[in-house]
Each structure stands twice: as structure tokens, then as C-alpha cells.
Amino acid sequence: MNETLTVMTDCASIAIFDPDVTRQYEGDDLDSFNFDNIDGVKHGLFTGFRLGGDGVYQIRFCDDDLLADERDYAVSVIDDLRVLVKSGTVCVGGYGLQNTADGYPSFSVMPGMYRLTIYEILWDVSPKWFRDDSVPPADAPADFVVLFGRLTGDAAYYRPHQALRLDTVYLPFHDDEPFLFASSTRRIGIEVGMTLQSSVIKSPTSAHGLRLKECGIELYKADLVHFHGLKRRDRIRFRVTAIDHEKMMFCGELVEKL
């Protein structure tokens, strides 16, 4: 199994379920978005997790292990969840647990009980994939990876002490690194030579009287070699020539006015 689904949510949550199982569920708590308190989740029938906000997310489901890039940027995990599959179809949705497959991304597996381990992948802190237009590049890892392993016997089990939420906030060089695994290949933060976009702002402490608004992965202000021909509110693209983490400042040279 290796399926990557695009899931949209305006409920800041992701639900994972077999609609045949939810349709037969007799509890009256299926429409709750607090998955921790749903009896069917506690009994291992279906599951879900909460996010930090609404949006469109890429979720990869596999029965193997994390890929190298996913392992480098994995920051949090929910382990040992359960999903019961009767119909052979697993639906993934951003609008809570439903009793229909209509309109929901899905994939096929053999019927049975499955154990899920869900990883959050914070790939956008890497210069390999960061884009200041916020459009994920085609080769970026998924936002979440769900390891899907089939179980045998009476395997329904839930760990109630686990919060079903994946929401890591991290700024490189501001916060302690949250990564789960040691790595010799992980790269974080803006690097010299990269191009960024920003807007010109006033700065009474700058020799030019101008600076650039916070930008990049670290959200640092930036100073240009010169501001000739630029004025407040101009939007520009610049090339990073130096980085001062103590002053939280990029230094750069103008590439073009946008």
C-alpha cells in the first residue's frame, strides 16, 4: 500500500473510517469533532486527529515505513490507533466521521483490524522545499504519513492518555528543534544564495531609513546593500548574501522590483 490523498478540511481535523462501520455504529457521538471522547474511537472502530487549522493537506498512507525525507522532518507522532475495515474501503475526510463514502478521498485494503501510526512532517522549514509563494513544490513530502499495519485476533485497543492532535509550531533558530529522529542530512532555515520576496518598510534605526518586512522561514527582517529607486510598500525580490541569527536579519542584494 502506498496512497497519497489530498484532503481539505474547514474543521481543522482529519477523520479516518470505513463508512460501513460508521453506518452500523450505534453510538450518538459520531458527529463530535473531539475524537478523544468518541466511544467508537476508544473501541478501535475508527479514528481521527485534530490539526492547528483549516486547509488542504497531503496525507500518505503506507504499510512500510517512513521515507528518508519524511524521517528527517518528522516532528510529532500519534501511535497505536485502530481502524476496523469491513467493506475494504477506508475514507479520509476533513469534515468529521461520516456514514457515506460519497465525495471523500479513499483507498482500498483487505478487511480487518488495522493499527495506525500517524506522523506530522514539517517539511516546509527546509530550504529544499520552501517557497515564499506558499505553493508546495511537487517533490515535497506529505504533510502527514499514516503507517497502516494489519492486525490479527482481538486487537482493538486505545490509549486514552494520548491527545489526538498534531500541531507543531516551530521557527528555525528561535525554538528548540522538535524533530523526532537524529539526522545528518536535515537542512533547516533560509540559506545564503536563496531568493526571497518582501516589502519595503520604514525603519528609523536603519542607515537607509528603510528595511524589508519579515520574510523567509525564520521571519527575519532584511537589509539591502542599497535601496536606490525603492520606496515604502514596494514589493521586491532579493538574493540573500548573509544571515545574522543574533540580529534576526537577512542581508541581501536587489534582484528585481515586482
Features:
258 residues, mainly beta, 6% helix
Account of the 3D structure:
This protein is mostly beta strands and 258 residues long. It is 6% helix and 39% strand. The protein has three helices and 14 strands. The chain has a five-stranded mixed beta sheet. The longest helix has 6 residues, at 19-24. The N and C termini lie far apart (45 Å).
Offer a concise description of the structure:
This protein is mainly β and 258 residues long. The chain is 6% helix and 39% strand.
Task: Detail the topology: elements first, then pairings.
Layout: E1 2-9, E2 13-17, H1 19-24, H2 39-42, E3 47-50, E4 55-62, H3 68-72, E5 74-85, E6 89-93, E7 106-108, E8 112-121, E9 144-151, E10 195-202, E11 210-215, E12 220-224, E13 235-244, E14 249-257
Strand count: 14
Strand order of the largest sheet: 1-4-9-8-5
User: What's the number of helices?
Assistant: 3
* Termini separation: 45 Å
Main β-sheet description:
5 strands, mixed
Helix-residue proportion: under 10%
Mass-distribution shape:
elongated
Q: Which series of helices and strands comes N to C? A: EEHHEEHEEEEEEEEEE
Residue windows where pLDDT falls under 50 for at least 5 positions: none
Q: Structural class of the helix and strand makeup?
A: mainly beta
Percent range for β-strand residues: 35-45%
